[in-house]
């Protein structure tokens, strides 16, 4: 008992945002995220310091998943962004950078946090109302009857992550494949509650990206099948292949001593009894004209041999991840017991064949109606493949979100600068009743609005990593990137050809201002107009649902952190 230490009292940290350690950590995190943002973002190598896997990435899901922090404030921020990414897959860096910007700009104001929170919520509502209105100049409608906008959306996602190491030909090839895979997952016969299918990614590392392809149905790696040999499979009278899907182990060791005791008569072999039961299942499957048996777990060699001799293809070790798509594609109900076998659990396939990719044999399951497909994804290195896999999964999820809400937002920083221009104009024309309702002065409102706009503009500024100038036009509120090292000219239009999103060219007589002017100098901004001429072939687009959610999450998280008065840490 003498060695027991007395419990330490909890540590109380008041006004955590005023602490140097918190400020420095927040500034460091913001710098890491900003330098990773966009197609020209700098890559980060993450490892745990004691060996193991090294992750090279610029994606928020990988960055925040590998970073560890002892600061409670940063843990709140990263957890909030990770939750957003888990729901939308996209705009993680946007959300995190914007949140850091809100915290940095708001905490420097000589305004009470409670007042800042009220005003910022009002500003957020102005943004959301504008984004959801038909008059919004940074919103693009997505027509699923044409692939142009969808191509722009997918290409924007693929080119945003430099660790994928893709050239233009590879980007175009993968854009086509991702869209083709997505179209495969759309049900042919739409019912009241239509459910999209799924694209399964098959890894092939060490091959060219252009060797990637998409096939309808599922590919299951099967080393026991030899490529080139004909595949004899039993078919039903309607020329389909009846399937059975087992989620229970068929290895013959079903009895687990930890589950209790079992009484066995003298001279009876438990193993032989189990095997006989498995063989009885096999006989029933043969009798029911099943042509393909798939098992999530291990199948006994004797059962596999028996099924093979009777023209039944047997596949075991399918794994949990394939059970749901297998069941949906074939219509099979997973069979959870070898002691009860109902014909109602069977499904069917249109065809079955062997394919070979990168010298690996695969069993190709071809369904009647394609809602499940396989993307054979190739890349030259393991690091680049890991990044590419995450990007393709993000693109698929973004397309699914776009089906629910067929809209997109302009990328390349133009939505952020457009919103900032809109808020600057809107905040200068509000009636006095607004300030009365918010219980604040017009000066306080303008201070918070300016911090809000600077935070949005800082996200657009983060897309530039070469110290070039960034401009905002005074007509549409879009941002324009001047190449680094450009000579001084009298007309900016001589140096810029298109805005960040690619919608506006320099053909008009536009006037510009520098992004993020000197602190304290008010920016006079008219209401941004909707572009009259739209360039639709090479637009940079962002997911509407993900960006709208990211904007809300960033502000709500920043307000939560600004409102922190104490952090209480247990020292034991």
TrEMBL record:
<keyword id="KW-0067">ATP-binding</keyword>
<dbReference type="InterPro" id="IPR028790">
    <property type="entry name" value="MKKS"/>
</dbReference>
<dbReference type="GO" id="GO:0051131">
    <property type="term" value="P:chaperone-mediated protein complex assembly"/>
</dbReference>
<keyword id="KW-0539">Nucleus</keyword>
<dbReference type="GO" id="GO:0005634">
    <property type="term" value="C:nucleus"/>
</dbReference>
<dbReference type="GO" id="GO:0048513">
    <property type="term" value="P:animal organ development"/>
</dbReference>
<dbReference type="GO" id="GO:0051082">
    <property type="term" value="F:unfolded protein binding"/>
</dbReference>
<comment type="function">
    <text>Probable molecular chaperone that assists the folding of proteins upon ATP hydrolysis. Plays a role in the assembly of BBSome, a complex involved in ciliogenesis regulating transports vesicles to the cilia. May play a role in protein processing in limb, cardiac and reproductive system development. May play a role in cytokinesis.</text>
</comment>
<protein>
    <recommendedName>
        <fullName>Molecular chaperone MKKS</fullName>
    </recommendedName>
</protein>
<dbReference type="InterPro" id="IPR027410">
    <property type="entry name" value="TCP-1-like_intermed_sf"/>
</dbReference>
<dbReference type="GO" id="GO:0048731">
    <property type="term" value="P:system development"/>
</dbReference>
<comment type="similarity">
    <text>Belongs to the TCP-1 chaperonin family.</text>
</comment>
<dbReference type="InterPro" id="IPR027409">
    <property type="entry name" value="GroEL-like_apical_dom_sf"/>
</dbReference>
<dbReference type="GO" id="GO:0003006">
    <property type="term" value="P:developmental process involved in reproduction"/>
</dbReference>
<keyword id="KW-0206">Cytoskeleton</keyword>
<keyword id="KW-0143">Chaperone</keyword>
<comment type="subunit">
    <text>Component of a complex composed at least of MKKS, BBS10, BBS12, TCP1, CCT2, CCT3, CCT4, CCT5 and CCT8. Interacts with STUB1. Interacts with BBS2 (via coiled coil domain). Interacts with CCDC28B. Interacts with BBS12. Interacts with SMARCC1, a component of the SWI/SNF complexes; the interaction takes place predominantly in the cytoplasm and may modulate SMARCC1 location. Interacts with DLEC1.</text>
</comment>
<dbReference type="GO" id="GO:0060271">
    <property type="term" value="P:cilium assembly"/>
</dbReference>
<dbReference type="Pfam" id="PF00118">
    <property type="entry name" value="Cpn60_TCP1"/>
</dbReference>
<dbReference type="InterPro" id="IPR002423">
    <property type="entry name" value="Cpn60/GroEL/TCP-1"/>
</dbReference>
<keyword id="KW-0547">Nucleotide-binding</keyword>
<dbReference type="GO" id="GO:1902636">
    <property type="term" value="C:kinociliary basal body"/>
</dbReference>
<dbReference type="GO" id="GO:0006457">
    <property type="term" value="P:protein folding"/>
</dbReference>
<dbReference type="GO" id="GO:0005829">
    <property type="term" value="C:cytosol"/>
</dbReference>
<keyword id="KW-0963">Cytoplasm</keyword>
<dbReference type="GO" id="GO:0005813">
    <property type="term" value="C:centrosome"/>
</dbReference>
<dbReference type="InterPro" id="IPR027413">
    <property type="entry name" value="GROEL-like_equatorial_sf"/>
</dbReference>
<dbReference type="GO" id="GO:0005524">
    <property type="term" value="F:ATP binding"/>
</dbReference>
């Amino acid at each position: 008992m003498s060695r027991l230490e007395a419990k330490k009292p909890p540590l109380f940290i008041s006004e955590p945002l005023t602490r140097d350690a918190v400020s420095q950590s927040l500034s460091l995190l913001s710098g890491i995220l900003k330098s990773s943002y966009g197609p020209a973002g700098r890559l980060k190598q993450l490892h745990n310091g004691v060996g193991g896997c090294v992750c090279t990435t610029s994606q928020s899901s990988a960055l925040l998943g590998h970073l560890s922090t002892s600061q409670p404030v940063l843990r709140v921020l990263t957890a909030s962004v990770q939750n957003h990414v888990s729901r939308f897959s996209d705009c993680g860096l946007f959300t995190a950078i914007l949140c850091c910007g809100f915290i940095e700009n708001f905490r420097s104001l000589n305004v009470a946090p409670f007042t800042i929170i009220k005003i910022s919520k009002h500003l957020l509502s102005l943004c959301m109302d504008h984004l959801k209105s038909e008059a919004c100049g940074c919103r693009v409608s997505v027509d699923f009857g044409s692939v142009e906008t969808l191509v722009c959306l997918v290409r924007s996602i693929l080119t945003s992550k430099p660790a994928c190491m893709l050239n233009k030909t590879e980007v175009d090839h993968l854009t086509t494949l991702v869209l083709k895979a997505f179209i495969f997952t759309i049900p042919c016969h739409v019912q009241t509650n239509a459910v999209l299918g799924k694209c399964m990614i098959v890894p092939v590392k060490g091959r060219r990206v252009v060797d990637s392809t998409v096939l309808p149905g599922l590919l299951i790696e099967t080393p026991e099948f030899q490529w080139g040999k004909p595949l004899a499979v039993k078919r039903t009278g309607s020329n389909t292949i009846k399937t059975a899907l087992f989620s229970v182990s068929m290895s013959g060791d079903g009895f687990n001593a930890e589950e209790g005791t079992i009484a066995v008569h003298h001279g009876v072999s438990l193993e032989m009894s189990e095997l006989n039961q498995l063989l009885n299942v096999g006989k029933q499957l043969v009798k029911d004209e099943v042509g393909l048996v798939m098992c999530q777990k291990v199948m006994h060699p004797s059962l596999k041999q028996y099924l093979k001799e009777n023209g039944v293809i047997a596949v075991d070790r399918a794994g949990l991840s394939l059970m749901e798509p297998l069941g949906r594609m074939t219509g099979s109900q997973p069979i959870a017991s070898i002691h009860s076998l109902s014909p109602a659990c069977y499904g069917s396939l249109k065809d079955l064949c062997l394919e070979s990719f990168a010298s690996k044999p695969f069993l190709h399951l071809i369904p009647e109606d394609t809602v499940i497909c396989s993307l054979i994804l190739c890349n030259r290195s393991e690091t680049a493949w890991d990044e590419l896999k995450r990007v393709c999964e993000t693109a698929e999820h973004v397309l699914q979100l776009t089906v629910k809400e067929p809209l997109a937002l302009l990328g390349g920083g133009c939505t952020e600068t457009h919103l900032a221009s809109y808020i600057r104009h809107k905040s200068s024309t509000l009636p006095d009743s607004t300030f009365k309702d918010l219980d604040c002065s017009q000066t306080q409102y303008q201070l918070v609005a300016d911090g809000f706009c600077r935070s949005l503009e800082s996200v657009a500024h983060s897309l530039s990593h070469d110290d070039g100038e960034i401009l905002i036009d005074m007509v549409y509120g879009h941002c324009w990137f001047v190449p680094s090292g450009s000579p001084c000219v009298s007309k900016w239009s001589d140096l810029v050809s298109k805005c960040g999103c690619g919608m506006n060219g320099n053909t008009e007589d536009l006037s510009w201002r520098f992004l993020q002017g000197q602190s304290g100098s008010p920016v006079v901004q008219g209401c941004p107009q909707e572009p009259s001429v739209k360039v639709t072939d090479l637009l940079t687009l962002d997911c509407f649902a993900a960006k709208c959610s990211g904007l809300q999450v960033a502000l709500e998280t920043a307000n939560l952190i600004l409102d922190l008065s104490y952090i209480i840490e247990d020292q034991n």
